[in-house]
Amino acid sequence: MALNNTYDARPAQQETAVGAGVQILLLALLGTAIGMGPAGWVTGLVFAIATWAVLSRALHRSRLSTFGAANRVTLGRATLVGGVTALVADSFESAPPVSVLVGLTAVALVLDGVDGKVARRTGTSTALGARFDMEVDAFLILVLSVYVSMSLGPWVLLIGGMRYAFVAAARLAPWLNAPLPPSTARKTVAALQGILLLLAGADLLPYAGDLGVVLLALGLLVWSFGRDVLWLWRRSRMRAMVAAEVDEVLEASVGDVLVEATRAA
């Protein structure tokens, strides 16, 4: 009896298409409510199409036949991030209502703590889901740093760009690609970035307060990345030392064998 190993990606990819449709619906609602301009529309549509394309490709490569409840939560969060991205792009032409931007961002940040719990409780944790969650988080922080930089200066972009700079550096230094041990501190610092940037962009504090909040976020992020890079560097050095010692032992062993062989001859 022949086994059917045919992989059908359509059920999972249909959900990504639905996500893109919901993204466009959210843009329409925002456009109707606040009169969003061309920059916001174009940016939001590009985000929706890019998310659908990248996620569909990732699903095909991972060969997942079902999308999963946790990924649905992350997709909903990505939809909100798309709305925030459109509003930030629109803010270069006209200032959107801060309450709308804060509301969408706040819900996205709250949902950040939901998808992981859903994945663990349903036993549906996957590498794709973890990567999807991480990329949505990173992009939201980047977008928020762009928004806050308009009032505090371009240096704020260091917060949003640090993770992408780390990824780029890993292409030149492969030892940065080694897996890191789990860290509650790292997760806490990552979660605080969105909260602190949202607070700085909510127009609740005076300039000095916003500046202090963002400097705190940047300081925590530099400490977190610095600690991880130092751990990875030490690990790479240790592995290199172990490899060198193994090579020395092997060379000595081969030399001893050759000497014994010569004597025997």
Automatic annotation (TrEMBL):
> Which Pfam family is one of those matched by this entry?
CDP-OH_P_transf
Q: Which GO terms describe its molecular function?
A: phosphotransferase activity, for other substituted phosphate groups
Q: Which InterPro entries match?
A: CDP-OH_P_trans, CDP-OH_PTrfase_TM_dom, CDP_ALCOHOL_P_TRANSF_CS
One GO location term (cellular component):
membrane
Please tell me whether the keyword Transmembrane helix is annotated for this protein. yes
The name on file for this protein is Membrane protein
TM regions (residue ranges): 24-55, 132-149, 213-233
Instruction: Name one process (GO BP) from the record.
Output: phospholipid biosynthetic process
